[in-house]
Specification:
Blueprint lengths: L5 H7 L6 H5 L11 H15 L3 H13 L12 H17 L2 H21 L2 H10 L4 E10 L2 E8 H8 L13 E3 L2 E4 L1 H16 L7 H8 L6 H14 L3 H7 L12 H11 L6 H12 L5 H8 L7 H11 L14 H6 L13 H5 L15 H23 L1
Bound molecules: iron/sulfur cluster (SF4).
Amino acid sequence: MSNYNAYSLVYKYPWLEGGREIFDPTSVSNEDEDPIEYYNQLFTKYFESYPDFHDKLLQVFSLALDKKESGIILTGDEINVILFYTVKTILTAFDNRVMENHVSNLISKLYHQRLLEETEQNLEVLCRKMNFECHFEKKQMQIGNVLYPCWVDVKNYVPTASLLKDSAYQLINRNVINGRVYLLKDNVARLLQEVVRRQIVPDRQKSGGELMDLLKKITHLSPLIDDITKLIEKKKLTQTQYESTNVYENVDYALYPPCIKYILNKATNGVNLTHSERLHIAFFYANTNHTVEETVDVFRTLPDFDEKLARYHVEFSRGIGGKGKKYRIYSCAKVKSIDMCKALDKEYGDIICAQGVFRKGEVRRIPIKTPKDFVFWKNVEIKRKLREDKVQKK
Ligand code: SF4
């Protein structure tokens, strides 16, 4: 039995039904009421009831802009709900995608931690409320060497998993038996984390400019807006920066080279990886725009998984902490020298690896040099096939 009642749940997880009404009971207000007066009263109540509200809000933005993943203690009462919606309102007003990316990452990670601390029963209740019907069973399902406590119906799984760009969550990379997708508790928390992240991102239909004009007229919000503006200026956070940093290859499973697919299959089946295999995954993921979280998730099904250690190694490979050195992807020559190349493997082998590619101006195939080359050329091949299919259909 879950030990939750509806109220305690919405205080802990404010995006659930009823959360917005706790923050902003506009549904009971008179439509003719002056919005400035209404929000002045509302926020005066909040800032006076919670004297450190200004500092806490500023701390959220400051930590997020420093790309921190912790530092805020979430409560489980009214202020938690008010904080959530005030942050969302401020993000809408600023209409700055770099900032909303950073803030939504920080907040969703804080909730990810909270979700991991939940009992399986509570997590099951929460999932249901978030339209992600998952079932924790007393008798766990053993697949390979891994015991899975939870399953989700395929139809229910796909819409939520598709929110993640992490290929580890694609159906093809999950254990599916009789229409059930088997998951670890951490997988469930990770999937919900993405749902939470999207809850914080503002609705683009709303006009940020008009809202900003309104917020600047609210006695307690105006100084906060000024402080956040100063933070943004200090960090030189512009929309151009967002656009230039956000141009990346969306490397999904279809583009992974054979050597990587082989290791991922081992990990999914709970077979321990060698040290070199772990490094190969960590360097490949670090150099193909995968997050730390996505990389740690690969190691989660290993029998010797140790979250702290895995996170340390993954962060180290990216130059976070330690000497600050970001490691490059292994070259194919290196992978071959340690006997991990799967160019000719019956299941995973690929002509790009086995025979090379036709580069511009060349009459014969030239070998690829790194697994990242494979990603590039596989992408070229897939796009060419799509074009040819289109022509044939005409
Ligand atoms: S050729 Fe390179 S990319 Fe392809 S399997 Fe071997 S090491 Fe991996």
